[in-house]
Amino acid sequence: MRLDRALAVQVARPTRNNDRGKEFRFFVIVMSAGPRSLGAARKRWFELDSSISMDWQRPDAPPGMRGAPRDVNGSSTVVPPRGVGGVIKWVLIFLLVAPGGMITAADSLHRVWEDAAQAQFGGALNTMGPHEVHAKAAPSVLYARAMLLLNTPPTTESRLDEAAQLLDRAAAMPGIDRGSAAAAAYFRARIEAVHRLRPDLGKAKGLYRDAWRQHIDSDWAELSALKWLMLDLIGIGTNAAADQRLSAGEGMIDSFTTPPHRKDFHLLMAETWSRLGRQREPVLKHLLAADEIGIAHPQTRADVYCAIGSNAARLGQRELALRYYERYLAEFKRDARRHSIAMEVERLRPSE
Amino acid sequence: MNWKSRVWMVGPALLIVGFVFSAWPVLRRSVLPDPPDQEILRIGHRQLDPGMRHGFDWVARRYEELNPSVRIEYLEVPPPTFLTWLTTQFTGGMAPDIVEVVVEMTDENVARNFLALSTIVQQPNPYNRSTSLEETSWRNTFVDGLATAPGYREAQLEVFGIPTSLVTSRYYYNKTLYHQATGRTAPPQDFDELLAVCREIKRWAAQAGRVIMPLAGSKEVYLLLAARVFGQQTQRLALKRGDPLGTLRTSPFDLHLWLAQDSAGLRAKPLAAGLAIMHELAEFMPPGFMGATRADAVFHFGQQRTIIMMGRSNIYHSLMQQVDFDVGVFALPLPGPEHPRYGGNARGELTEIEQNASAALGITRFARNPQRALDFLHFLSSASINRDFAQNSRMLPVIVEVEPQAELAPFAPREGGYPYGFSLTVGGAADRRERVVFSNLHLLFGPGGTPEAFLQVAAPAYAAAAKEDLLRSIRNSRRSLARQDTLHAALGYLAKAEWDDAPAADRKQRELEERTTLQEFLMMWADTNLDLKL
Predict the structure, then answer these.
(1) Record: contact B144-A62, CB cut-off 8 A
(2) What are the φ/ψ torsions at residue B170 (nearest 5 degrees)?
(3) Percent helix, strand, coil in chain B (nearest 5)?
């Protein structure tokens, strides 16, 4: 195994206050240095550790800076091996981490996901290494590897197949928790919906339905339901007329119990009513319901405020339109619609 | 073996000695060591305009005065080689502490090599202490709220770069020649007056036997003009065709879909009016201007062979150094809603409130002291320093409440006005439509060219090209959604993990789900309705 200095330092970067994690990282560094002798390994360790310790000791590292050292409580607690005891310690660590591969340490899995959250998919996959997907690998490892395979070049069909198999395997494993199983099933459907060169939306719809029905109490299951509904509303795998699809969609409201997904359901219904139904009342009703729950992204919030204002104004609900337009003006100081909305407010405001 | 038989060895021996001699210092150190008791902050950027260089230099000296142990070094890289240079720096692990974040970088490249700043920008900038911005989050001290590219990456919902200036576009004019040719001193106030002025200049030049054109032209000028002309003419059409929900902001997917579905889309009245306006303006530009570059246009203007030139605010400093005549600046006057020929399509003047901030600087993962790099960015973007930086660089300030200096006031972004409609290349992918438009522009701008001649040839091909572009846009959007799946899974894990950033990961996960669900709906809607003819 070869690991260059920059990557070794990255792997060694402390992510949690966890001495075992540090021991593990220490082991990774020493092994990655490719020591030809104990002396060379120690030399390499000191060489690498000097920069790592420097990072750990830096008390002024900005606490919120992701990617910068987070563990600033002191220097490394890892003591370079000295004598027979040190070597025994090495061997013990090796025995501890080797059976599950590098990734069995929760600390490292966390590190992999941290890298993935920064869109460093290739780096995260390299950190996992190629050899950890053995028969006894934990479902969390299979799931992580599948998700990284989906976006690490080259994203070939065979890689997508491999990812699909890993997700199926992970979802079916007895030790997997409900949330992870639902997530694996959801992303399995996503492979057919968006990852394939030629997506199969009919198959994706079926997989979304399975993911939703089989993991009913999970957050991810509700997301599967939302994506199933989206495909149904635009007419995938159904011959129902537009108004029938819309009314079936309305009937699904109770499938969304978590506030974020219920809000996304309302936003989706508002978009669909505006295109298929071309009626303002249901659009306004859904937008108001979404706003009541709370919009997450500022851009969506600005859109929703303006859409409530314009739909309410056209339906003659002047007070409601004014309320939302004024909220928009108060909250969004640098949006391109400010002037138009200010003009609308002037027009709608009753003359003195 | 005598010395004669060994003489052949001299060459290889010298080669080996030379190699060892050269390799030794390279192997011994990968970066130059800092002088003792001095910390060097290295900053790589591609802002080679003299104004920006001067401004950066001024900031560096102020920062060094404040921190005597710090020295700031700029690595100025020409734009054409910037990305290649950066790739080698990142690959070799020798990137400067701070590097300009540019739009051409991929999301993964940015994420891999720059520190994410979203959490930090929620805190106030310490250098704004004792000012009216003392309690404002760093993010909200920027005119764009750090929500525009290149510093902000929508795909990751992350801030990686801190912008330093704003760029707008205006007409520059040669005050002396303008007065000589037209007898006027004030710049034109509306579109018809601009045309009248151009006619007067053309007549005056012909009478004086001088080869002077009223307007400078180049491909860049065309692009700047077209964005505004079509942007204003399509304000109403955009809302009609691209805003079913009533957000008063148009969705590019809906507009693109309409252009692909409607074979007569390019003949829509507002687009035809835009072509006619472009045709009228091109009459006053040098023949064959589409083959000219920005440098050609500036050269012609400097040589007094054109009197009025459309250009960006960031060339102001260098232009002032190059020309020895008085230069005035005015905003492009466009036909408003009341215009007798082109009115009715527009809602009003175009707003510039969302003008993108530029020259964004980010902290690399290779920064030897990220805290120092962050401190410098705080310093550079504090209200008082950004004001002075803008003055020294003759650029527009990027911090709210900082007014541009008097000579740059005409460049200040217009905050009133209405949003842009759309251009002929609306939507993500536009290659095919660009080819149709650019390959037929000679029918609009060439000798005997007219909007109708252009439309006769371009319109039938345009709808088919729009469809091909839309298919590519859909593929791109699908790729982007696919890419966000791994990000989504990661945020899902981190939001549930026991660590300090779990609430932030949860917030990002919810934002991502909301945005991607809507994006996916629009993409799927366009995909399933693409073959529906209007």
Answers:
(1) no
(2) -145, 170
(3) 55, 10, 35
If one compares A62 and B282, the residue with the highest pLDDT of the two is B282
Can you tell me whether residue B391 is helix, strand or coil?
helix
Judge whether B24 is closer than 8 Å to chain A, CB to CB: no
Q: Check CB contact under 8 Å for A230 and B521.
A: yes
Which of A73-77, A308-312, A332-336: highest mean pLDDT? A308-312
| A25 CB-side CA count, 13 A | 30
B513 and A310 within 8 Å at the Cβ level: the answer is no
Q: What is the ipTM of this complex?
A: 0.85
Residue-level pLDDT at B122:
87
Buried/exposed code over B434-473 (b: 16+ C-beta within 10 A; e: otherwise): eebbeebbebbbeeebebebbbeebbebbbebbbebbbbb
Looking at this protein, which amino acid is placed at residue A117?
Answer: A
| In the block, residue with structure tokens 């003392």 | B134
B298: contact with A, CB 8 A cutoff = no
What CA–CA distance (Å, rounded) separates B408 from B397?
10
Residue A68 is predicted with a pLDDT of 36
B344's enclosing H/E stretch is none
Closest approach of chain B CAs to the CA of A175, in angstroms?
A: 17
Contact check, Cβ <8 Å, A113/B511: no
Whether B245 and A283 lie within 8 Å, measured CB to CB? yes
Q: Is B9 on the interface with A (CB under 8 A)?
A: no
Give the mean model confidence (pLDDT) for residues A38-67.
Answer: 40
Q: B121-141, pLDDT tens digit by residue?
A: 989 999 999 999 999 999 989
Among A122, A199, A348, A82, CA closest to B524: A199
Mutate to test the interface with A, among B248, B254, B376, B507 (most CBs of A within 10 A): B248
What φ, ψ does residue A43 adopt, rounded to 5°?
-60, -45
| pLDDT on residue A14 | 38
**8 A C-beta contact, residue A219 and residue A213:** no
Instruction: With CB atoms and an 8 Å threshold, state whether B111 touches A300.
Output: no
Find out whether B381 and B399 touch, Cβ atoms under 8 Å. yes
Interface with chain B: mutation pick from A7, A110, A111, A118, highest number of B CBs within 10 Å: A118
B56 CA to chain A: closest CA distance, Å? Answer: 24
Residue A95: pLDDT band with limits 50, 70, 90: low
- Cis upstream peptide for B150 (omega within 30°): yes
Strands B152-153 and B158-159: antiparallel
Is the CB of residue B252 less than 8 Å away from at least one CB of chain A? no
Instruction: Pick out chain B residues at pLDDT < 70.
Output: 1-2, 28-34, 532-534
First-to-last alpha carbon distance for chain A, in angstroms, is: 79
Q: Tell me the residue type at B63.
A: Y
Contacts of B244 in chain A (CB under 8 A): 271, 274-275, 278
Shortest Cα distance from B472 to chain A (angstroms)? 12
Which among B522, B530, B523, B529 is positioned nearest to B468, based on CA atoms? Answer: B530
Q: What is the pLDDT of residues A106-157, one digit of tens each?
A: 667 888 998 888 888 888 888 776 655 666 678 898 999 999 999 998 989 9
CB contact under 8 A, B248 and A114: no
Condensed to tens digits (0 to 9), the pLDDT of residues B17-73 reads 999 888 887 776 655 666 778 899 999 999 998 889 999 999 999 999 999 999 999
Q: Which residues of B touch A310 (CB under 8 A)?
A: 246-248
**Which distant-in-sequence residues (6+ apart) come within 8 Å of A343 by Cβ?**
none
- For A147, nearest residue in chain B (alpha carbons): B486
